[in-house]
Queue: 2 jobs
Job 1
Amino acid sequence: MDLLEKAARFGIDPSFTDGYGQTRSSDPGALQQVIDALGPSHRGGFLDGPLVARSRATGGRQNIDLSQLALPLHAWRLVDGAGRIVCEGDALSARDQPDVSNLTNGVYRLYAVEEDGEKDQTCLIAAPDKAFGGRFERRWILALQLYGLRSARNWGIGDFRDLQATIAWAADAGAAGVGLNPLHALFDNHPADCSPYSPSSRLFLNSIYIDVARLPELPPTFAAEHASEIERLRQAGFVDYVTVAGLKTQALHLAFEQFKTRTTLRRRTAFEIFCAERGEALERFACFEILRRKFAGPWWEWPAPWSRPDNTALAELRRGPDAAEIEYVAFVQWCADQQLKECAQLCRQRGMPVGLYLDVAVGVKADGFDAWNEQSAISRQLSIGAPPDQLNTAGQDWGLAGYNAAGLEAADFAPFRQMLRASMRHAGAIRLDHVLGLNRLYVVPHGYKADQGVYIQMPFEAMLAVVALESAAHRCIVIGEDLGTVPEGFRDRLSDWGLWSYRVMMFERDDAGDFQPAGGYPPDALVTFNTHDLPTYAGWQAVHDIGVKSALGLDPGETREAREHAVARLHAAIGHGGTDLAEFEAVLGFLSETPSRLLGIAVEDLLGVIDQVNVPGTIDEHPNWRRRLPLPIEHWNQRIDPERLAHALRSRRA
């Protein structure tokens, strides 16, 4: 079997079209390295991939798409997750349709036998017709980076108490919810490793957002003893992750010691319920956190048996000298979960139909918990990225590990479902970063440049079915970040399954540079002016971002003349010119008139911030993910006029 045949068997595209419309052929060495990284788990039987049984809206009857089956079959059997036989038959031909009209939504295993006696099995997903779509018309949400919030009481970083204050402010202003950067668990919140989009785990929360002062077990003297340090952190222009994390870790350890001996029965019971709910995943996460501090280097260099999550060894670890520290990790996760849950409850109390809108990172760090925990389903030797386009001319390597299609299928998509459940746990809506990865992943083998990556096909229909399944179960809207090089028909498939689009006004322009009229946006979409990876409105119209990128030696992807032309075309679209906040209110008025059901407004734009949150392609050169807002929450109304904001958004008021 030659290299191209091997690549085809693994769903690898040997060539692709980049953002410039140029065809690129993959380097043979890169192809071979990708094949080696995917491992031997790729299926080779006659059942070619997972099946989907979808309940159509008309009549509710489920029909299985049999197009991927090698028919006829001599015998078949469908088994649920508990190993129970749901239905079975002696034969199946192209004219047959198995009777699965009473099949409960979920994930099953199909076992089949061909006429020649060969046996095979695959996954079958019984899914609702569409993902949950929400119960509201055209509304708006406030978008922010939680770490950037200032307040009169936090410890130098926005926390869950600040989030409650923000929810109250947004509800008073008429917002339907609050959108946040990913809250995933990172390693140790080091400045060089503080991107919320580069998590160790998407199953658990970043403990740095806990308002430790609210923990009933923390002695009130702790804050008083560290008052000067807390005040210094509170006044800083950037988040000092190392100091903040260190201070909060001290407080959390102290609270945990008190919790073990002096907490109430109610709180102890709540903790035990949380541990039971999160089950094995929490136990493994807590053990991983201890193990990564015991051993130097990434987990694949750890000694046996720790380089793989062995349940017997981990059970012994939990009973050994590290038992208290392992319980401490679970305690910290419980504290974070409880405080985020309270934020979600406040959204409901304030009548916000969306509530919390949480971002979900596209991948995880190769040396993090998720990659250790799901070694067959996550490819640690390949980095997710994107091919060259107008904004990133050299391509992108995000340094994140993504899913292995064959590993997901072998596990009946359990790792993907578990990630979605954790993300939806307290959310009314989630945004899947780089949703194009459900269809195909652009991966860069280690040692190759970002423009030398290859595309791997994913089980697109099955992954959409899983998203719809979890979305309906959790009543959570799913918005797909569908920017970049979008394959033909991709957005139509998302829409057919009920996933919303993500439309950025900055990109919605025709070949002449004119902005798309308000009526041209789709209804089931979140529309916004920019994103965290793009300039703020103030920075964009002042051409500030181009100057910053040029000074950093980055290709801005746009000339000053082109930007000035774009600003002029924007003024023509919104019927307003100028450089003050009134101009952004005109932009909001324009976006407010779009049919799109959600409008996202960045708080940085409301406050007139000129520097962007993140400059892609930089780490130390720019203070990414560290910049704090210029005003504390208590003083927002000094810069944001509630009446003028309400007037700009008058068509989206409840």
Job 2
Amino acid sequence: MTNSAQTYLDRALRDKYAELSTKGDKQRITYIAVNHSEIYDDPEEKVRAEFWAELIYKYGYEPARIGLEVTVPDRTPSDRADVVVFHDDDRKRPFAVIECKRDNITDAEFEQAVEQACGNGAWAKLRAAYVGVVAGYTRRFLDFSNKYPALEREENIIADLPEQYGQPEEFRFHKGTENDIQPVSKEELITVINKCHQTLWGGGQLSPPAAFGELSKIIFVKISDEMKPRKQGEPYDFQIKTYESSQRLAARIRQLYEEQKNKDPNVFQDTINIDDTVLRTVVSHLEGINLSETDLDTKGVAFEQFMDGFFKGDFGQYFTPREIIDFAVQLADPKRDEYILDPACGSGGFLLYALDKIRREAGQYYTPDTRRHYAYWHDFAQNRLFGLEINGEIARVAKMNMIIHDDGHSNIGGTDALSPLERIRQTTTNLDFKEEAFDLILTNPPFGAYVRHTENPYLSNYELGKTSTGSTRTRQKTEILYLERIWRFLKPDGRAVVVVPDGLLTNSSLQYVRDFILERFQVLAVVSLPQTAFNHYGAGVKASVIYIRKRRPNEVPKDDEAIFMAAPEKIGYDATGHKCENQFPEVIEQFRAFQEDPDPFFV
């Protein structure tokens, strides 16, 4: 864990309570006070070593009273307790029995560990007052003092192990104390998010996006609680309370959610729709970390890597690789005073990279963490960034992504961007959606699907939804209609970076679409992507990135309009998703030179 620059184990090693040694290719740890040695490279041993040190420095227990691999009397010969805290130096009277597991175990494995700990700790020959399981940030402690029977698993849950043989505290985490919640590393955050999603997904009870939608609601509560004003020493609300059943905890978390939902109704409209015990488990994963104080880049990369895997396969259509997004944003170079839209925003990647660009820009003008620095990029997020997404579950993912990055979430509309403007206006409150409202559009619209006139009568409203004779087509490809919608959304001289299938640029039957593009837009750049660009995300369509500018009224295309073209073979990842050389920065450099003087490119 990253509770501080120096961990509890670092202190134990410094104070000679333990030592690390290397023999061959193995590292071993020796717990000196009890003369016990184990292979330290084992992930479970690392968890135990850190918690053992925490027992010394945080909980106040003497190293000589902390037994390791303690044999449980009259149980099977191999049945040993990972950690036992004793009342006495002779280690005869157990106080607490704890099992330590690696950080990424499944919920089923965790529950099995709970039963193992309870079986050992509540056994008559090793009767302990408390038992617990520690698996990284996920922990559970139970009170088995005389008032609770050996089979109780709900009413006896406590917030934390008592310190120095005392009584359990009502809450574990308090602001501004040694027991404050802590920011985490990228790896730790990825582990926590994956554990939460696995808990909610539950082996298929919810679809992956539905599970992430529920996680979004819970993280919304978590972040709201972190940002709530409270005095030093006051406990956080988002945590497990001592002697609080799953039902009572769930009711309390749901109440917090309803309060925040009423304050910010544009984020979520429905309730938390998961079982009480599932909610308790998710809270146990999240309660010890501080999302608000975790570095924005750490959060961004962690959630991005999580969704990289989450959106593969069936949901690959909602995710654009970060390298392509980054390239598109650099190509367009968004400005702080521009209104920006992604009409097929998926998980919100284009919007987030535009926001990150402005946030980095703020650091060039103002000192980070000052009011003016915050206002520079936050006002942009709140008032200038907009997204539309037809899939309601994925729209919630985008909102959550924006919340994690500190705002802009209220500008995500869960609707079909091709539908009539009146319908779109009902999905967001911060902008009256109308034609010619945006300065820049960044998008990867869906490929290959069709809009059928029988299902969507609005097809007749599109010029590209009609034949050359003026009759409405029976169907039209979505990516073609998106080009017309982009043209209508853009202001004159507005720009767009769009990912399009290559067939749109080459098929002879689509010449009328290319004519529409050349008549309505100036094509600034066409960058052909490798065939494998989307293989990793479940799509094999050959595609290009086009950068276009909407022509002004009465502007006539010129014969000498130069178009920058490039075809990088390496874009930062290969067909399997592994990292490789990235030629996009070189393409950007060439494009900037082309903007200054296109002539050398045509010698």
